Amino acid sequence: MTARGGQGSAASLVLVGLACQEIGASFAVMLFPQTGPLGIVMLRLAFSAIVLLVIARPRLREHTGVAWRSVVGFGVVLASMNALFYLALERLPLGVTVTIEVLGPLTLSILTSAGIARWLWAGLALAGVVALGAGGWDRLDALGVVFALGAAVSWAFYILASARVGRQFPRLDGLALAMAVGAVIALPLGVWQAGPALIRPDVLALGAAVALLSSTIPYALELVSLRRLPASAFAILMSLGPATASLAGFALLGQHLSWLEIVGIALVIAASIGSVLAASRRASGARNPGPDADEPLSEPVG
């Protein structure tokens, strides 16, 4: 596989994961009255862990202490990122929540950038994020903003932690183990907040759907993508989150888009395309990422 083809397919996987993630977030909002945000976090991580453990069947032996610490750290990041995101989503619109959250990977993209072009695409993406959220800033809840900013920081740590685990464990083994760790962390508060709703078949069915759409599919696709796509390109590509979130909010939650928000979507898409093309040109002269699942990132992070 050529460098351009490998990075193009990796970018496609990220986009599919984003679409699934925001549809799942919309379903989660519908479950809040029954489970609360922490209840849906527990359901999301628990169902995702079960599915991934069955699929990956990870080996528990032959791993170093450093690798296990990476898995535990990844699990903590998964639990905190999801909890903070849903706590924010309880108080803020979907598009605004994701808009604030995406500041985490955007900041990481700037810190890991090399060359003036990276700063250009990061600035363009940031302008799109600001424009996309412009229609909702007057409705912001202060605590919701704090939760969303915490989710942004957690998302940046997620990129670093998932890349590290992807290098230390084959295939989806590390992700499956980390998801199980995250589910255990989320279990006490989830049971406390959701209570009897956890034994209702309809709630469990929707919780499983949220897990597949919001965790299992996107995280698996992103982990594979991070082995072929530079961290900076991945981070800017993930800035499409506000666009997919706003579209999902419009289609599933009845949240309409203003012209300024549409402009924001266009700016974010332009920045993402520019980022991927720039990464492709740079990588084509350096090395060709292969399809081997054990291959590390094209540029080291963390």
UniProtKB/TrEMBL annotation:
Keywords: Membrane, Transmembrane, Transmembrane helix
Biased amino acid composition, Acidic residues: 292-302
UniProt keyword Membrane, yes or no: yes
Subcellular location: Membrane
Region Disordered: start-end pairs: 283-302
UniProt domain EamA: residue ranges: 143-274
Entry's transmembrane regions: 38-56, 68-88, 94-112, 119-137, 143-160, 172-191, 203-221, 233-253, 259-279
Membrane topology: Multi-pass membrane protein
Domain of life: Bacteria
Cited Pfam families: EamA
Entry's family note: Belongs to the EamA transporter family.
Protein name from the UniProt record: Inner membrane transporter RhtA
Taxonomic source organism: Microbacterium trichothecenolyticum (Aureobacterium trichothecenolyticum)
